[in-house]
Amino acid sequence: MTVKPIQTDVAIMGGGIVGSSAALALRRMGMQVVLLERDLCGSRSSGVNYGGVRRQGRPLSQLPLAQRAHRIWAELPRLIGTDGEYQRSGHFKIARSDADLAALEQYRTQSQDFDLGLEILSGSRLHTHCPWLGGKAVGGSLCAEDGQANPRLVSPAFALAAQRAGAQIFERSPVDEVTHDGQLFTLRSGAALQVQAPMLINCAGAWAGDLAAQFGEAVPLCARHPAMAVTEPLPFFMVWSLGVEGGGIYCRQVARGNLVLGGGSGVALDADRARSGRDAIAALSVQAVELLPALRHAHFIRTWSGTEGYLPDRQPVLGLSQTTPGLIHGFGFSGAGFQIGPAVGEVLAELARDGRSSTPIEAFSIERFLPAHAGPA
Amino acid sequence: MKKSLLQPVVVGAGPAGVRAAQTLVAYGVRPVVVDEAPRAGGQIYRRPPSNFKRPAQTLYGFEAARALAVHSTFDTLTNQIDYRPDSLVWNAQSGLLDVLHGPTQTTQRLPYQQLIVATGATDRVLPIPGWTLPGVYTLGGAQVALKFQGCAIGRQVVFMGTGPLLYLVAYQYAKAGVNVAAVLDTARLSDQLSAMPALLTQPAVLFKGMYYVAWLRAQGVVLHSGVRPLHVLGQTRVQAVVWHDGEKELTLACDAIGFGYALRSETQLADLLGCQFAFDPLQRSHLPERDGAGRASVAGVYLAGDGAGIMGADAAEWAGELAALALLTDNGVAVDSARARVLEQKLRQLRRFRTGLERAFPFPQNWAAQAPDDLVVCRCENITAGELRRTAQTSGADELNRLKALTRVGMGRCQGRICGVAAAEILAQATGQSVEQVGRLRGQAPIKPIPIHLVHASAPGVNA
Ligand SMILES: Cc1cc2nc3c(=O)[nH]c(=O)nc-3n(C[C@H](O)[C@H](O)[C@H](O)COP(=O)(O)OP(=O)(O)OC[C@H]3O[C@@H](n4cnc5c(N)ncnc54)[C@H](O)[C@@H]3O)c2cc1C
Ligand SMILES: Cc1cc2nc3c(=O)[nH]c(=O)nc-3n(C[C@H](O)[C@H](O)[C@H](O)COP(=O)(O)OP(=O)(O)OC[C@H]3O[C@@H](n4cnc5c(N)ncnc54)[C@H](O)[C@@H]3O)c2cc1C
């Protein structure tokens, strides 16, 4: 091949919210960066997710990242030139039993150091605050500063902002091959594009496993497909984004009036595409009406899903490669990477510049999946 | 033949679906026929509710004999097929169709191994300012009102746009005694003249069309060609229409407008089934691929009629029969292969005529360039042409699904079935690409909105 490689400080594989915010953060640090995205930036998980921007309910190990992200979300318009319909509208996690309510109270206690401002509502307060809630709810936990955003707008906007800041972004450019000569990574996309950099950030979402494996770091990453559905616009009645303790369904109403609902698993069409399955749609509708009786006469107008990378412990892989200097991982957000994405981007940029992160990320080391790390049999 | 394996499903009971079902029955197969409409007949031979008593001649004009033939064919089939009227296929997944029964609002899963998709077409809409005013209908909608409900969209009606349906519907309205204030055709007379040689390959059809025009003229209906529709005037409903005739602006009072630019195929089901699509320059749209007999790219799926490309009602009948023959052949049934060859031949010949029609009634290529910024393109979401252009420019969106994601165009109840054509034209124009390049909106279930409580009824453990 005769194409002249593009030389840069950092190469990024994958233009989801993670890769795009890493590119933006690197530019803000003054580093050169080239990002390769196989499709369009923000067209995969990052652009099709439910849009929940919540800290509540995350494992404690993720809260430092989530807090950092929380501050970035507040700055969104300045940072990426759009608010992306981001609203701190409140995230309310519902308990359907006393045991669930106790679990929410316990989480509030455990997360006290993080200033989430959780408030437990139950009994008559519950019903004055949310008359629209179905009878199954006994209480819930409100995080007033959590909220929601429009992922279709936010994620591509990170990529555009990075580009405006000087990142070289190549869309429709799949990374077909990566080689490493001990110093430099060489990424090839088709016959026309080659990129060389001493550092490579692997944030290819559900598809990041091959690259990790190539460098001796095979991880049990698997793809799953959260099912989503949206109703026609209804008169606006609910500002909170809702979740349910124990999972099952989540739901929010956008300013336009549509209810966006998620829960259960979709079906994969192939390695890249997925849809909401009929069983998931059926289950969603049952739970939706239970949760919000006002939906009884609504129509679903559209359903969809996405392809997201999950790890068995539902924590991402985030940090330096244990085998290959210059390689940095940031993938496998297990259904919850949208809120922390912008902070993850900054952390990845710090790792590239300084070799370490100012936010604790030990819990996410890839080491936990490597053979040497496996405890005694 | 392994009869137990072969339980073909036909979706759509228009001319294509009816002939497909008839052919399957003729070879001893009992198909399931699913149709959203309450009675078989499809769009062109749509039947009024059974208590309406307008004679076929009044309803279908020249088409009466064919309409009666299709209807009576279907009526004689009813004991040999499993017919499911009022039934919308809203989703398809792994060998199962999800079918919503309208009157009872329940949904059922219908398994299939072989499937004939004959979902027909709807109007191709290119909006103009004012098109969302009450009193503005599509041509097809205007015709449905007349055929199905026996009522007119107004007392003083303008028909506008282009395509064979333009003159036909105007004729049907005038015949029914409605005052047709004018017919405004965006095609020029020279288009029609240059199309003559190709149109002459189907003289009977051509002469029918000419008859409508001549009849309208004889009745004193004003016919304008080469017009550029400008806007619809009115406060709370249509009061007048304004157009440009190449030299000046003209205004005409009316209380209703029927408009449209030929038809577009209903392709969502083929899309959900995983069929491959390709751009068809003649129809200016992406269509599911099929071979000469109607086989789609997915094994077991066959495509027939306007749903796979606009070819008209006669072609739909042939294609339905042919698809059924292909299905039977593929399942080891010895069919009349000479008949299959004849049908393929007829369809090929018609292609020439279709080219002529596109020439006679060309798509208004410069529609997008002339659409003003404040024109509402997507009426569900109230998205204007200007918004689409701005987004394309500021975001770099050069593909239709990305434009949808960024603007909500096509995200409302119609899911792009109505606004999709116009949005693609605007995007192509704004980005200097062809409509082929901007792609097509990916199909997403449900094909039409479905009530939440209906899905409810079939949820696991609820009704099982
Ligand atoms: C339906 C759904 C709902 C969700 N809801 C929420 C929610 O409410 N809140 C929340 O916080 N999180 C949610 N998530 C999770 C969140 O969307 C993801 O964790 C997050 O978007 C992951 O971002 P990413 O950048 O790692 O991955 P992605 O957005 O998947 O980006 C990875 C990118 O890498 C590209 N790529 C892959 N291979 C290559 C290659 N070889 N060359 C070039 N590019 C390549 C892909 O095309 C893709 O664009 C949801 C996810 C889904 C699917
Ligand atoms: C409104 C309208 C008016 C027309 N009028 C004329 C005319 O007057 N003269 C003329 O020559 N041509 C006319 N045409 C064109 C003519 O309809 C077609 O050429 C012909 O009907 C095609 O036959 P078909 O069997 O392919 O489809 P259609 O006749 O359109 O039949 C398709 C059938 O499939 C059903 N269907 C579609 N999707 C689904 C689904 N998901 N689930 C269940 N059922 C489904 C529909 O309800 C319909 O009954 C008209 C077209 C339209 C749209």
From TrEMBL, chain A:
Gene Ontology CC entries for this record: cytoplasm
Domain FAD dependent oxidoreductase: 9-351
Keywords, alphabetical: Oxidoreductase
Family annotation (Pfam families): DAO
Record carries keyword Glycoprotein: no
Source organism, top-level taxon: Bacteria
Gene Ontology MF term list: oxidoreductase activity
Protein name, UniProt field: FAD dependent oxidoreductase
Organism whose genome encodes this protein: Albidiferax ferrireducens (strain ATCC BAA-621 / DSM 15236 / T118) (Rhodoferax ferrireducens)
TrEMBL record, chain B:
Gene Ontology molecular function, alphabetical: oxidoreductase activity
The entry's keywords: Oxidoreductase
InterPro entries: BFD-like_2Fe2S-bd_dom_sf (IPR041854), FAD/NAD-bd_sf (IPR036188), FAD/NAD-binding_dom (IPR023753), Metab_Enz_Cyan_OpOx_G3PDH (IPR051691), Opine_Oxase_asu/HCN_bsu (IPR017224), SoxA_A3 (IPR041117)
Entry keyword Methyltransferase: no
Annotated ranges, domain SoxA A3: 383-457
Domain of life: Bacteria
Residue span(s) of domain FAD/NAD(P)-binding: 9-320
Protein name: BFD-like (2Fe-2S)-binding protein
